Structure formats: structure tokens, C-alpha cells
């Protein structure tokens, strides 16, 4: 399957309207879900190789609007990974300590070490999104943050970290349905935040900022993937497939065994 149409691997002008939020490729739900178990098994094997090799790492960045499916993606795609080699980091409003440092300080602290897969649930891009939409930082500060992020991701890449960035692309109509579902189901009330409605009212403003982010921070070493996310099953299939493809391209190797092991007998 060709994933290039979802990939942005160089700076260029991006319009989110060019990607359908309800795309399903040429797959049926049944076929995609039948392949997910195989993808998860392959992902587990590749993660073990990454952990054993202990020379490189993988950073997965998930960005989306509210109810865009970040948690669901982690649950359904990465659930089979070995916890010894995986970390999930959610980013919320910076703490007092974090805010007293530069905006990338808290990000660098949790970047993956060698052999590790780290998943960012939101990321350093929040430090562009919210300040831009709500006018919390001036234009010069925001422009510098774009530059700092590009350099930061290049540093990680140069240090052996493979970076994959996923924008989970949902429609305003689908977001409405998911937010309403949280209100209608008592067991999902904990997921509902009235503040999400204020952010929803700024839909067009967030669209403009996301388009600039995708336009200016895409590169060969840190590509963005625009993932159609209205159909959860297709979202999961795409993310899982792209992760497997990326890890396979790294040609991960188990360490060479010590000499003489073939002569050892366990009594």
C-alpha cells in the first residue's frame, strides 16, 4: 500500500482541505481489522529488535484536535508493545517549574533514550498552537519557536532517533459526534471538558496554525503524516502500517552473540 499521499517530508504549502477526513483507501473495515493483529505482532517483533540493538530510538508524535483519537490510537495500535521499552508522555499546561525554563526543556527531558520507543500524546507543537490561537505570544516569539523546533528535531535525528509525526485529521462534524457521545454516556463523562467547546469555536484559527506547522516543520528526518481519522479503524490501520514500515526500513539487528555460546551446556 502506498502511504506517500499521507506523508509530508519537506517544507511546502499545505492545505488540510486537500486530505479527506473520511478516506478509507481501497480497504473495507473487515479487511483492515483482520490485518491489525498481524501488524501488532510485527510491531512487537521490531520493537524487541530496537530494544535489543540499543543503538537507536523511535519518537512517535500524535497531534490532533480535541476528540481526534490520540488515546484511541495508542490503545489500539501500540497496546501490544513491551512496557520495558515504551513510554507514553502526555503534555498538558506547563507546570510552574516547566514554565520557568525554555519551552523545549520539558520535551528534551523525556525524549527517547537508545532502544526506546516514546509516544508523545500532544507535544512541543502545543507551544505554537495555543499561544498563536489565543495571542499568548508575539509573532517574533512564535517564529523563533518554529526555528527552534526544526533544529531540535534535527538534533534528535542526528543522535539516532527516528521521528514520525502524525496529525489525526478529523472533521468538525465527526468531532461534534464524539463530544456528544461523551455527554450521552455516563461512563465517558470523565472525558468531557467544557473547555473543549471554547476551542471548538476556534476551529478555523486552529486549522490555519496546523497548516503552517505542517508546512514549515516537515522534513525528511521528521515527516508529518496527515491521517484521515473519521474512521477509527482506518486511522489505526494507517498508523500501524506506517510504524511497521519505518521500523523495517531501519534494518534493526540483534546484537552479535558472544563467542563460544554454542559450546555451553546448561546442567
TrEMBL record:
* Coiled coil regions in record: 29-56
Q: Which InterPro entries match?
A: P-loop_NTPase (IPR027417), Polyphosphate_phosphotransfera (IPR016898), PPK2-rel_1 (IPR022300), PPK2-related (IPR022488)
Question: Which GO molecular function annotations are given, in alphabetical order?
Answer: kinase activity
Record domain Polyphosphate kinase-2-related: where: 27-252
Matching entries from Gene3D superfamilies are given as: P-loop containing nucleotide triphosphate hydrolases (3.40.50.300)
The alphabetized UniProt keywords are: Coiled coil, Kinase, Transferase
Q: Give the protein name, as stated in the record.
A: Polyphosphate kinase
Amino acid at each position: 500500500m502506498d502511504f506517500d499521499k499521507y506523508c509530508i517530508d519537506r517544507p511546502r504549502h499545505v492545505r488540510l482541505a486537500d486530505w479527506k477526513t473520511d478516506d478509507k483507501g481501497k480497504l473495507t473495515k473487515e479487511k483492515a481489522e483482520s490485518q491489525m493483529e498481524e501488524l501488532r505482532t510485527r510491531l512487537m517483533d521490531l520493537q524487541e529488535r530496537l530494544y535489543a540493538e540499543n543503538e537507536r530510538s523511535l519518537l512517535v508524535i500524535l497531534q490532533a484536535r480535541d476528540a481526534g483519537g490520540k488515546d484511541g490510537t495508542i490503545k489500539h495500535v501500540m497496546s501490544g508493545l513491551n512496557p520495558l521499552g515504551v513510554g507514553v508522555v502526555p503534555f498538558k499546561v506547563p507546570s510552574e517549574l516547566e514554565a520557568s525554563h525554555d519551552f523545549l526543556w520539558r520535551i528534551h527531558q523525556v525524549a527517547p533514550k537508545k532502544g526506546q520507543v516514546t509516544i508523545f500524546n500532544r507535544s512541543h507543537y502545543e507551544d505554537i498552537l495555543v499561544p498563536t490561537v489565543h495571542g499568548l505570544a508575539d509573532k517574533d516569539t512564535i517564529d523563533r519557536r518554529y526555528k527552534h523546533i526544526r533544529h531540535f528535531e534535527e538534533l534528535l535525528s542526528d543522535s539516532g532517533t527516528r521521528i514520525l509525526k502524525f496529525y489525526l485529521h478529523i472533521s468538525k462534524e465527526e468531532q461534534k459526534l464524539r463530544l456528544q457521545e461523551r455527554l450521552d454516556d455516563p461512563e465517558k463523562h470523565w472525558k468531557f471538558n467544557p473547555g473543549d467547546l471554547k476551542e471548538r469555536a476556534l476551529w478555523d484559527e486552529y486549522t490555519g496554525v496546523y497548516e503552517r506547522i505542517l508546512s514549515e516543520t516537515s522534513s525528511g528526518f521528521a515527516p508529518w503524516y496527515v491521517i484521515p481519522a473519521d474512521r477509527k479503524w482506518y486511522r489505526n490501520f494507517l498508523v500501524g502500517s506506517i510504524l511497521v514500515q519505518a521500523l523495517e526500513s531501519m534494518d534493526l539487528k540483534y546484537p552479535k552473540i558472544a563467542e563460544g555460546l554454542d559450546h555451553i551446556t546448561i546442567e
